[in-house]
Amino acid sequence: MLDLDAHLTAIADGDADAFGQWLAGAEPALRSSLRSFAARVDVEAVLQEALLRVWQVAPRHTPDGRPNSLFRVALRIARNLSVDEVRRARATPVEDEAIERALAASEGEVMPVGPDPLLRRVIEACREKLPGKPAEVLMARLSSGGSEPDEVIAARLGMKTNTFLQNFTRARKLLAECLERQQVDLAVELS
Asked: CA–CA distance from 152 to each of 31, 139, 141 (Å)?
């Protein structure tokens, strides 16, 4: 990195163009120096805050005779801001008694379980409209809860596996079409 202190006098005089030139040289290295904090803090926010502070302190900055003195100040500001953010984000342990009080207070509350009740009714209404064999196959597969292979379910229903799968595919297609007519967006509901 070239000595960016060449812009220091103009920056101290409030020259925004000079600060922009200093920034163009300093920003990549400054951003790279914060890489170790990226998992714990918003590095972009820290970087922006650090650069703002550098602009504010630049008129009072006195070079120490070594190259890139303002960059080293910026580096110190950015790293200190990152450490402050890590400390601020650190979770405070909660005492067991506080957890017990929160649990006792929430015992009477009803927590939502399962999907939207209206959606459940629409699905059930569409399922009831399925014709005989597709409805039978769909219910058999749902009842198994995924614990049985299709071959076993097909044999129990007295079908060949291929016939079972064709009926299941037909049931899915008819169910999807019915839900679509009811304006249920499957892509949204399944995401």
From this structure: 60, 14, 10
CA dihedral 100, 102, 108, 109 (to 10 degrees): -140
Q: Please report, for the domain that includes residue 62, its CATH number.
A: 1.10.1740
Cα four-point dihedral sign 12, 18, 23, 25: negative
Burial of 108 (0-12, 13-18, 19+ CB in 10 A): exposed
Contact 23, 70 (CB under 8 A): no
What pLDDT, in 10s, does the model give residues 12-39? 899 999 999 999 999 988 988 888 888 8
Domain span including residue 148:
117-189
> pLDDT digit string (tens) for 114-131?
557 788 888 889 999 999
Q: From 34, 130, 120, select the one nearest 85 (Cα to Cα).
A: 34
CATH number of the CATH domain containing 161: 1.10.10
Q: Report pTM.
A: 0.48
Predicted local distance difference test score (pLDDT) of residue 109: 55
Amino acid at 33: S
In this structure, is residue 33 part of a structural domain? yes
Residue 169's identity, in one-letter code, is T
Count Cα neighbours of 58 within 13 Å in the Cβ-side half-sphere: 28
Residue 25 lies in a domain: yes
Task: Name the domain count of the chain.
Answer: 2
Domain assignment of residue 66, yes or no: yes
